[in-house]
Specification:
Helices cover 38% and strands 15% of the residues. The strands form two sheets. The chain has a four-stranded antiparallel β-sheet with strand order 1-2-6-5, with helices on both faces. A two-stranded antiparallel sheet has the order 3-4. It has eight helices and six strands, in the order ααβααβββαβαβαα. It has one domain: NADH Oxidase (3-Layer(aba) Sandwich). The chain is of the alpha+beta class. The longest helix has 18 residues. It is globular. It binds flavin mononucleotide (FMN). The site of flavin mononucleotide (FMN) has 13 residues, from loops. Flavin mononucleotide binds next to loops.
Length: 186
């Protein structure tokens, strides 16, 4: 696929076949994250790759009340928990860039996955403390996001369809609403 077509066609996937991920594909995805840019190239990110189906199922039903909305991850063959050590990133203008570093890396993984026919879905809805405890993640490490990775089922289930309607997922703001030139005119 042309790179722009990868970006434009990517959609969050919430209905997974349980077909295991090709290991070569998984390695390609992980490499895409590892090669991301980061604050002073400090690479504060850390990734927990979960390929134990029982553990994924356990997280699907034990990541807090808010995590219940992401029960759909239970069928995915892989769950990647994107973590960061904030002390290893940097601060500018009062902003800690660990979130940015880790988000870029995870997004590079997701786009690479899509190009390989593998779906993913950014997830912020989980109880961080509960997931940290399940995975023995130390206190100083933050979980930035999680995403399942797997081959999409041909048909999205009703829940996936509902979320897309609820979030108006197919819509993007027009350029003139988000971009200006030379000075702020928005
Ligand atoms: C920071 C962030 C958090 C998100 N959290 C969740 C989530 O917890 N559960 C979920 O199903 N989708 C989640 N999404 C996915 C968005 O709903 C989705 O990206 C958006 O509706 C656009 O749809 P698309 O990804 O199919 O283009 C999240 C996306 C982002 C960027």
């Amino acid at each position: 696929m042309e790179f722009i077509d990868v970006i434009k066609s990517r959609k969050s996937v919430r209905t997974y076949s349980d077909k295991p991920l090709d290991d070569i594909h998984l390695q390609t995805i992980l490499e895409a994250g590892r090669n991301a840019p980061s604050f002073q190239n400090r690479q504060c990110w850390r990734f927990v790759v979960i390929n134990d189906k029982n553990k994924i199922k356990y997280i699907a039903s034990n990541s807090g009340i808010v995590g219940k909305i992401n029960f759909f991850i239970k069928n995915a063959p892989i769950l990647i928990v994107a973590c960061a050590n904030p002390a290893q990133s940097g601060n500018m203008n009062g902003q800690n860039y660990y979130l940015v570093d880790t988000a870029i890396a995870l997004q590079q993984m997701m786009l690479t996955a899509w190009n390989l026919g593998i779906g993913s879905c950014w997830m912020a809805a989980f109880n961080e403390e509960k997931v940290k405890s399940i995975l023995s993640i130390p206190p100083k490490i933050r979980i930035v996001a999680m995403s399942p990775f797997g081959y999409p089922k041909e048909k999205e289930n009703i829940y996936g369809k509902m979320i897309k309607v609820f979030a108006a997922s197919d819509k993007r703001k027009k350029q003139d609403k988000i971009i200006c030139y030379n000075e702020w005119t928005l």
